Records
---
Amino acid sequence: MKKNKNVAIIVAHPDDETLWTGGILLSNPEWKCFIVSLCRKNDIDRAPKFYKTLKKYNANGMMGDLDDGPEQKPIDVKEIENLILELLPPLTFDLIITHNIHGEYTRHLRHEEVGRAIINLWNNNNTLTKQLWCFAYEDGNRNYFPKPLINADFSFVLPNEIWQQKYEIITQVYGFRKDSWEAKVTPIEEAFLQFNSPEIAIEFINNSD
């Protein structure tokens, strides 16, 4: 991989950046990373933990405060797009990493909405990024913990020491108990769909609708 990449990680919640791509970030400390969490800016527990996590990745970042209520009411995609543009620095990134439009497990609407918003933004402004990776996991409709999609474009099995650092961020920085869903699911294999142009990403959306 190219060193010194400008990389943006755009996720719905603080901890998503670690669960789904933390190993890649820890394995590439030379990347210049900007991490955006679109929810929980005013969460007095989770927000400080997110900013502590940024230090683990030697990254900068910002948070938004999208509605994240348990009822998961849909949010207009334009509202999400506008918030992303508000929080991101005005750069052309070498790579953006974000959610799959199908999410990573059954089911969190915010994950799906964020993935779709990023692709829409890229299609409307093709200078946003040179390449897009989307997390590639599924959970068999809650029949098992999320695992890499069979049709993922690529995946990485993390060295044990990298996985252990990632697990410690989940359990020690974010403070999830070892018997929590988050701790149990922390993937040792990280998988992605890769899009090299906004046209291909939009085609992916159209074929999924």
---
Amino acid sequence: MGAILAAGRGTRMWPFSQAWPKPLLPICNRPIIAYQIEMMRDVGITDIVILIGHKGYEITKVLGDGSALDVRLRYVEQTEMLGIAHAVGHLEEALDRPFLLFLGDIFLKVRKLETLISTFAERQADAVLATKEEPDPAVLRRNFAVIRQPDGLVTRVIEKPRHPPSSIKGVGLYAFAPTIFDAIRRTPRTAMRDEYELTEAIQVLIEDGHRVYTADVVEADLNLTNPYDLLAVNLGEARARGASVVHPSAVLGAPERVKNSVIGAHARVAATVELDECLLFDHAEVSGRGPMRRCIVTQDGMLDCSGGPDGERFNV
């Protein structure tokens, strides 16, 4: 089985969080959550439960029963946000066997996801954490660090460590046995954020003698925290594909003036405008004259990201 957590409010993604839940934000004209569903489908997981909350009806409207993606989707609603472990706990009645879990606001590039699944089965594990080598301590301080033995057996996980004890970073992808729900029931709130952290629940598993392993299957990951992240991952994916990504229904007055950008469905760009490293949502329109660089445009307005994550300016 599979599960995706898609209930968060995404307050730091303003102004986009007013209209879209983060899992529906577009990466090269497709929702983040669609990539996750397809990764599960491609390894044979077709029964998937999605935890919804903030604007959850938008997710159900876009994904429906999952038939368009050749999967079966069910939805569970969360009304109170008290941390990731608390969110996972809401899924207990819907998940009665081992499951693969994605955090719905993280864009992942994964190699051989089946390795994580086979590790879970072959090691008779209660949990397998997707991990990657992270040389930058600043990045580890924003995520969680993993201490493991040479065979991959995890001895400790530390949420947002001030002094990272290893260079192994956990990302938002896990395989769990139903024993995780017993651990969640015994997980205390943390002093740092007064929430029920999933890493604390994993540590409970470890201290109870359950087998937790890692699988280094992640090539790249980006937690979409703010609009600058959204632009960065779109531009990165466009570069990986070798050119701008333009939806076939978009109307470009001068295609040669659109460079290194992602243009959504039914978007319109006047011939007098030059776009460079921009993201246009579906139905966005750009008129006027002159160049635009590192901007995100929706139907409601434009966000100038040229100043980086601390210099965004939204113009309606």
